[in-house]
Amino acid sequence: PFFKEFLPDTPVPLAPLTAKLNANENPYGPSPMALEAFKNSAAGGNRYAWKELFQLVDKIADFEGVESKNIMMGPGSSDLLEKTAMVFFMNGGNVVSADPAYMSLIQVAKSVGATWKPVPLKDDWSHDLKAMEEAIDDETKLVYICNPNNPTGTMTDHQELVDFCSRVSEKVPVFVDEAYLWFLDEGAKKSMVSLVNEGKDVIIARTFSKIHGMAGLRVGYIVAQEATLNRLQNITRGGMGISLPSVYAAMAAMDDAAFIEKSRTLNAECREYVYKSLAAKGFDYVPSHTSFLIFPIEMEGKEFLNKMTELKVGVRAFQFMDKNWCRVSMGTMDEMKMFTAAIDKVLV
Ligand code: PLP
């Protein structure tokens, strides 16, 4: 039942691409304010950034409505997903998640000896919370939920997830990865962070890589109970891997409301364009809540990727639910036009 990812013959980071739509990066970032802050602080790079990091933590705590002791920083949320996996699974156990899901935490858990208990998404692409709860056993050390989910771009109902996290976290901690939550419209962005204030054993991951366009500057964080963070920080160190200019850039990015709005609006415009263009060619697609979307393709994934890479368009290809899928990130409108032109040549 496990989903599978295809790789092209040219290693992905080395492919000479003119439309780079394979890593869910934000084509507009970093924000002008973040860039300015990064440049202006670079000369301070002879010092460790602990003081500035504490300022950033306080700012994030304010923003999230939690206390600073509930925040742990990392150079990207990947670092925190991986550290969580190492600490939680160093003595084995299993991790319950959706299938397909974002694999970074799960891969590390498996590599230190855990087993993965995948639970297929439902037909409406939401998490099968009932089946996930049933999959929890005495060996389950963590439940991982990515909402909105990657690689599908789809959502699970907020209230159902709140109920699930509240109930299940009595038995086992729940990790909710909200990397893409900020692409939702104002009002629809409903985080699980408030559960931390209710004392629930949930861990919420956020990143500056997506809406803030800072994937290469490496800043992310988790929000959790102090005891959970202590458990992680007894073994690993939070925030040590973030460079001083990146700390300043993150603080500035949080204040750049115009850039955040621009990212959200242009991302939604590109999604609409791709929906229309795919529909006009007779393709199905899965409506997305993120900065990427998937659609089924009738071609083996590796062959598809090689043909797209030849046209200098980078995308991803997966196999699940008995189908091959293309996942395309939203780039600039020009990049999306290159993508649809390449689809015409490769698939139509
Ligand atoms: N979580 C999800 C769901 C992602 O898609 C990604 C990156 O693509 C990450 C976490 C990790 O991002 P970063 O390490 O840049 O914060």
From TrEMBL:
Gene3D superfamilies: Aspartate Aminotransferase, domain 1 (3.90.1150.10), Type I PLP-dependent aspartate aminotransferase-like (Major domain) (3.40.640.10)
Domain of life: Bacteria
Residues annotated as domain Aminotransferase class I/classII large: 20-343
CDD domains, per database record: AAT_like
Keywords in alphabetical order: Aminotransferase, Pyridoxal phosphate, Transferase
Listed GO MF terms: pyridoxal phosphate binding; transaminase activity
Family: Belongs to the class-II pyridoxal-phosphate-dependent aminotransferase family. Histidinol-phosphate aminotransferase subfamily.
PANTHER family: HISTIDINOL-PHOSPHATE AMINOTRANSFERASE, HISTIDINOL-PHOSPHATE AMINOTRANSFERASE 2
Protein name per UniProt: Histidinol-phosphate aminotransferase family protein
Organism encoding this protein: Flagellimonas pelagia
